[in-house]
Write a structure and sequence with these properties.
The complex is a heterodimer of chains A (about 550) and B (about 280).
Chain A lengths: L5 H28 L9 E25 L6 E9 L4 E7 L2 E25 L2 E2 L14 H4 L13 H10 L7 H15 L1 E2 L8 H7 L1 E2 L1 H14 L4 E8 L3 E3 L3 E8 L2 E6 L4 E2 L1 E2 L3 E6 L5 E3 L4 E13 L2 H7 L9 H7 L4 H23 L9 H8 L5 H22 L6 H26 L9 H21 L1 H22 L2 H9 L4 H12 L1 H10 L26
Parallel strand pairs in A: 6-7
Antiparallel strand pairs in A: 1-4, 1-15, 1-16, 2-4, 3-4, 5-13, 8-10, 8-14, 9-16, 10-11, 11-12
Chain B lengths: L1 H11 L5 H5 L1 H10 L7 E5 L8 H7 L2 E6 L9 E4 L1 E2 L2 E4 L2 E3 L1 H12 L12 E4 L18 E7 L2 E9 L15 E5 L6 E6 L2 E3 L17 H14 L4 E9 L3 E8 L5 H6 L3 H13 L6
Antiparallel strand pairs in B: 1-7, 2-3, 2-7, 4-5, 5-6, 8-9, 8-13, 9-10, 10-11, 11-12, 13-14
Classes of the chains: A alpha+beta (about 550), B alpha+beta (about 280).
Chain lengths: ~550, ~280
């Protein structure tokens, strides 16, 4: 009597049409853009925001900051300096660039800001094992053989230590550097950053932070006749921090080979290391006895590849390049990414709800929350969400005796939630934990809405039901976050927005009888009944009856 | 309306009891435990993976009312009256099995419940009006709503469906509310969409003076509902079924105020009278 569902046939036809459109659009895009396909795939860059707070009581203030430079493995773009009341100038000295800020008579506080975008590469060096230390080095690098105040390469202690770790007849550069590296890396215990340590102190104490270890490495290398120098830089991981990093590099036949004796990188510089200066300079120098605080904020960004983009803007069909078009309208790529990834998250929510039966508050709340966790990351985002819900629940209980009506009650709840998030944001900035600072508008709005729905659910179905629904939502949120933050998926959708039609096709399948069939096969919902009100009512079905 | 909200309910009704009345299946479980009659349930559908089970269930139980467990205002309810050409006979015509599965899926996804994104559904026995109600020539099942205050009935109303309400007894949907005298069980005049009326709009049958059968049993059942679910201020919906007799179909933690109109008496007054009566140890007038 009931053969195939006619709507299913229609649904399947729609799916095929959609897939066809996707294939055609992708094909057209590839054919027309040809080799410039690369323009559609953005690169991953780091976006660094340096802020400096300076305070004085009327005296003259000078601040010097090392600025990163381009080299073979790193390129710096989109630099911007805001010097506020201070006067700004820039100078080059040797391989380094320095920004100079000065004020004749600073009374109170001044803010300095420096932002830039960096793309970096990992580079690994292989030293030919036959290379030996030559009798002379070029004039340009001779200064890197000389001792310095903090790099006491000519002292007996250093020379003795060198004698202990290197066999007397050894002349080959590779093994010598390797032995020095291993001594500085493993022979000297690691300490967290603590002031400035010179080479001799590191040697004596047998423990040091990155500065001491690196200077010891440089001292030993110079003592062995290999030019070497300190490198100051920044480790690029998403988040906020105050500390920079020091490592070393040794000169081998015209190339500077990097060695990080703290984190264990021998003859390799990883992609997340950014070079700020070379030589034993310092990142910041400033007038004594003034208030000085600095902070690094690092984010990851998708950026369209510059050269390919420049070529493309000269072609007539560049409207196929979504990223380029939006860039011309000054709409940020970040916003574009958000807009394009939301359907992906929504599709996942549809799958979780309709196929697996995992519930949520509000139709697409898990996808919106995942989007709101962009700045905080998934882990801290969920912690933040949990804290907001706990605060909401507590407020609800506290307001109980007042017997308020629902909407004013929710307004109070919203106020408390926002106050809580601002408080957390403040704490986060002070502790340098940017991960809990979700101050931007979108996360505040979405977290407040979720808290409101959560409390509404407690009213309707009880606390236990609300809490378990929330717990299940965490699974959906995590899945959405994983998909929406996937660089590969973002690049694909940005390059070929028509792939969203594949999502539409999948949604058609999920929403049709096919979805019900898959749900029946998976029977995931059974597992979720833990914690929900169990309906134990005896029914005619379970008692084996039929209608009389 | 506001006085109802914070004056009465928030004094009387513990928040923890609301889930028990919002989820009709939990309500029935409680009624079952206390021996209070209710329309028997044929089958329960717990989650989306059970949506396709509806065909097998209907093979065994061809007629019934398919309802969301946490629905309100009658939303999402399907009255099924057996197989028909191309599907099943429903209120608006024939529904195909595909449409039925989709509708049940919607219920299970929480579309007809308040938030939470999930609900259960159940198929229960179709109810039939007691023959005494034939005079009104109704197109749907009528019910009696009794407002119970701390275990004592304080007001009652007979709710008659109309063509306009499409067979539903919900006043918001356009049904007729007829006031009932608690002492005698006799109906007074009615209210339709906030206008007084003396006759049923479809059949023209007069409303006043009808004696509700087994009214004392109905009042007794509503008292026992307070024992089952001790909400200080509650609406008990009872149907006089032709074969089952009076059965409790629903409990309401937030019963509407129209009952005042139907009875031409303010609830505040009725509650005052009730507390005077109980404190003086006398029964209600």
């Amino acid at each position: 009597m009931f053969t195939e569902n006619p709507y299913q046939r229609r649904a399947r036809r729609v799916v095929w049409i959609l897939l066809g459109v996707v294939v055609l659009a992708m094909g057209a895009r590839i054919a027309i853009l040809g080799q410039d396909l690369r323009v559609l795939v953005p690169e991953l860059h780091y976006y660094v925001d340096v802020t400096i707070d300076v305070g004085a009581n009327g005296e003259a203030v000078d601040v010097r900051m090392a600025l990163p430079s381009d080299d073979e493995r790193q390129s710096i773009r989109s630099e911007s300096i805001s010097s506020g009341e201070m006067r700004y100038s820039m100078e080059r000295r040797g391989p380094n660039r320095f920004a100079q800020f000065s004020h004749a008579a600073l009374r109170g506080e001044a803010d300095i800001g420096y932002t830039f975008s960096a793309s970096t590469e990992q580079v690994r060096y292989e030293i030919d094992p036959r290379l030996e230390i030559g009798p002379t080095v070029p004039t340009a690098v001779q200064r890197y053989l000389l001792p310095e105040r903090l790099i006491q390469s000519n002292t007996p202690a250093i020379r003795e230590q060198l004698g202990r770790i290197i066999p007397p007849a050894e002349r080959r550069i590779g093994p010598i550097l390797s032995a020095i590296y291993h001594y500085a890396h493993e022979g000297i215990a690691a300490l967290p950053l603590r002031g400035t340590t010179d080479a001799l102190t590191a040697l004596e104490l047998r423990e040091a932070s990155c500065g001491g270890k690196s200077r010891l490495f440089v001292a030993l290398a110079r003592a062995a006749g290999i030019p070497a120098r300190i490198v100051g830089g920044l480790i690029l991981n998403v988040g906020g921090k105050r500390s920079s990093h020091l490592w070393a590099e040794a000169w081998v036949r015209g190339r500077w080979v990097p060695y990080c004796t703290l984190n264990g990188y021998e003859a390799v510089i990883p992609a997340h290391y950014l070079v700020l200066y070379r030589g034993d300079e310092s990142l910041f120098e400033h007038t004594r006895d003034i208030r000085f605080r600095h902070f690094f904020k690092i984010k990851e960004r998708l950026v369209p590849p510059e050269e390919a983009l420049a070529r493309l803007t000269r072609r007539p069909w560049n409207m196929l390049d979504l990223a380029g078009t939006f860039r011309q309208a000054h709409i940020s790529l970040e916003l574009l990414k958000m807009i394009l990834m939301l359907p992906v998250g929504a599709l996942l929510v549809a799958f979780f709800r309709n196929i697996l039966g995992v519930p949520a508050f509000g139709t697409f709340m898990p996808a919106l929350l995942a989007l709101g966790f962009r700045e905080t990351g998934l882990f801290w985002g969920l912690i933040l969400l949990s804290s907001v819900l706990a605060v909401a629940w507590a407020v609800r209980r506290l307001l109980g005796p007042l017997r308020l009506m629902q909407i004013p009650r929710l307004m109070i709840l919203l106020t408390v939630v926002i106050a809580w998030m601002l408080f957390l944001g403040d704490v986060g900035i002070h502790l340098g934990m940017l991960q809990i600072t979700a101050i931007s508008l979108f996360p505040i709005v979405i977290l407040s809405l979720t808290a409101e729905r959560f409390c509404g659910q407690i009213d309707e179905r009880g606390s236990l039901h609300a809490f378990t629904t929330m717990a299940y939502s965490y699974v959906s949120i995590a899945a959405c976050y994983g998909a929406m933050s996937s660089f590969a998926l973002q690049s694909l959708v940005l390059a070929f927005p028509e792939t969203l039609l594949i999502g539409v096709a999948l949604a058609v399948l999920i929403g049709s009888a096919t979805g019900l069939r898959v749900a029946e096969l998976l029977r995931f919902g059974r597992l979720l009944r833990v914690g929900r009100p169990q309906h134990k009512l005896p029914t005619l079905e379970t008692r084996g009856g039929t209608l009389s | 309306m506001n006085r109802r909200n914070y004056g009465i309910i928030f004094e009387e009704n513990a928040r923890s009891l609301f889930p028990l009345v919002n989820d009709k299946l939990l309500t029935k479980e409680r009624l079952d435990e206390c021996g209070i009659p209710y329309p028997p349930v044929y089958a329960i559908f717990e989650d989306i993976s059970e949506a396709r089970r509806v065909r097998r269930v209907l093979d065994r139980f061809p007629t019934g009312a398919l309802k969301p467990a946490c629905g309100h205002g009658g939303g999402g309810i399907l009255i099924l009256r057996g197989p028909a050409e191309g599907g099943y006979q429903a209120a608006g015509g024939v529904m195909s099995l595909a449409e039925l599965e989709q509708h049940l899926a919607q219920i299970l996804l929480g579309v007809y419940s308040l938030g939470g994104g999930h609900d259960a559904a159940f198929l229960e026995q179709l109810l039939v009006n007691d023959p005494a109600l034939e005079r009104f020539e109704l197109t749907g099942v009528a019910d009696i709503r009794v407002i119970v205050h701390r275990g004592e009935p304080v007001m009652a109303m007979l709710r008659l469906p109309t063509v306009a309400s499409r067979g539903r007894a919900n006043l918001h949907a356009g049904a007729l509310g007829v006031g009932v005298d608690l002492a005698t069980g006799l109906t007074r005049n009615g209210w339709l969409r906030r206008q007084p009326t003396a006759v049923h709009p479809d059949s023209g049958a007069p409303l006043a003076g009808f004696e509700i059968p087994t009214f004392s049993t109905i009042l007794e059942l509503s008292r026992r509902c307070y024992q089952a679910v001790p909400m200080g201020y509650m609406g008990v919906d009872i149907v006089l079924d032709a074969s089952l007799g009076p059965v409790v179909i629903e409990l309401n933690g937030r019963p509407g105020l129209e009952i005042q109109l139907a009875n031409d008496q303010s609830l505040g007054d009725a509650l005052q009278l009730a507390s005077v009566a109980t404190s003086s140890g006398r029964g209600l007038p």
